[in-house]
Amino acid sequence: MLIVVNKPYQVLCQFTDPDGRATLADYVDTPGVYPAGRLDYDSEGLLLLTDDGRLQARISQPRSKIQKRYWAQVEGTATDEQLGNLQKGVKLKDGMAKAVSARRIEEPAGLWDRDPPIRYRKNVPDSWIEITLSEGRNRQVRRMTAAVGLPTLRLVRCSVGPWSVEGLGVGESVKMSTDEAWGALGA
Asked: How many CA atoms lie within 13 A of 133 on its CB side?
């Protein structure tokens, strides 16, 4: 089975936490499923859970090159040069990282409110970019945007391969069979 979840902000991508923070158990009541990839505690949006080890590996392994698309609200106004640098590649502590694509967008239609909202600074503009990656290193989007001078204020993963958060409210999920999931991957 595959569960497509719209993970809320400040929810851990695990089912227990000794410190009492919100976890997936607060939103998913299906035993035996595990995340296919991670999404940071302070990021929100699409998370995939499965009970199929092969499917989990196919989705999360970098060699699969499954694209992940993010909406990032960044501090500052993204320039063509900054977006170009994201696509050419930026040097991070763990090596070069480059986006498949990066472009300016308007605030995504239908985007839910975040609780708590990002801090608002009257004298500092912000803008939205959409960035697509084919790998997924720890906090990669945040590190990449910071490297080009656009610190991320809010990060929403909107799709992974054929799956998206479209139509899912915060904390909502939808289940599909393993056969449907493999079919969506074209396998």
From this structure: 26
The structure's pTM equals: 0.95
Query: What pLDDT was estimated at residue 99?
Result: 97
- 42 labelled catalytic: no
For the chain, count helices (H), then strands (E).
Answer: 4, 11
For residues 2 and 176, is the Cβ–Cβ distance under 8 A? Answer: yes
Would you tell me which CATH number, out of the four given (1.10.260.40, 3.30.70.580, 3.30.365.10, 3.90.550.10), belongs to the domain 1-64+162-187? 3.30.70.580
Reply yes or no on domain 67-160 having CATH 3.30.70.1560: yes
Average pLDDT (106-131) is 89
**Rounded Cα–Cα distance for residues 142 and 74 (Å):** 9
One of 17, 40, 42, 126 is an active-site residue; which one? 40
Quick one: average pLDDT of 121-150? 92
Residue 165's SS3 state is: coil
Give the residue carrying structure tokens 């799956």. 163
Among 35-39, 66-70, 106-110, 115-119, the range scoring the smallest mean pLDDT is: 115-119
Q: Please, which pLDDT band fits residue 180 given cuts at 50, 70 and 90?
A: very high
Q: Quickly list H helices, 125-177.
A: 140-147
Those residues whose C-beta lies under 8 Å from the C-beta of residue 79, and which sit 6 or more positions away, are none
pLDDT at 121: 76
Alpha-carbon radius of gyration of the chain: 16
